[in-house]
Amino acid sequence: MPLLEPSPAAPCTAKSTKRWHAPLRALVSAQRAGPLWFHCLLAWPAGLLPSVALLGLAHVMAALLGLDAAAFQPPARVLSVGEFFSSVVFAPVVETLMLGGLLWLLSRLSPQPLFVAAMSGLLWGALHGTFGLLWFFGTAWTFYVLGCCYLAWRPQGWWKAFVAAALPHALINLTALSMRLLD
């Protein structure tokens, strides 16, 4: 048996790894990752968890630089029914409508969906960063993922593209609000 030949167990491992990675790879490559409901559920942690990690890294970097990270946070808001509605319903709906328009404009500049999604993520991160500089790090990746979701589902229809971006956005905001309740 040659040294480079895989063991009999290797194809099973590679196949199971490939099954696990394929939907995530599709998701961040502006491709559909299965049915719409699955795509939305996968986009929720794929948009949230790296954003939390980036935000944590930004806090660590600020501390290493001797900066007070709290000074770069947006002002604290009172959790209320209005805040819940604004964050979980209003913002995902309105921002997804705006996201669709921005993606359409950026698509005129480049036919590359990953470039379009990345530029959109950076712009949305910068917009959110105006409320608190550290929000840039928490939202740029999320909006990259939301842009990929929208672009992946746009050929299937505007409504599906809207749902593919708005539903994970609402779930991410719901998770963030829930975490604030635990503080």
Write the layout of secondary structure elements.
Blueprint: H1 10-27, H2 36-64, H3 81-109, H4 113-129, H5 135-153, H6 158-182
Helix pairs in contact: 2-5, 2-6, 3-4, 3-6, 4-5, 5-6
Number of helices, counting only DSSP H or I runs of 4 residues or more: 6
Q: In percent terms, what proportion of residues is strand?
A: under 5%
Note the run of SSEs as H and E. HHHHHH
Mean pLDDT: 85
The largest pleated sheet is described as: none
Question: Which class best fits the helix and strand makeup?
Answer: mainly alpha
- State the shape: globular
Number of domains: 1
Radius of gyration: 19 Å
Number of strands: 0
Low-confidence stretches: 1-14
Helix content: over 70%
Termini separation: 59 Å
List keywords for this structure.
disordered N terminus
Architecture overview:
The protein is an all-alpha fold and 183 residues long. It has one domain. Helix content is 75%, strand content 0%. It has six helices and no strands. It has helices spanning 10-27, 36-64, 81-109, 113-129, 135-153, 158-182. The longest helix has 29 residues, at 36-64. The protein starts with 9 loop residues before the first helix and ends with a helix. Residues 1-14 have low confidence and may be disordered.
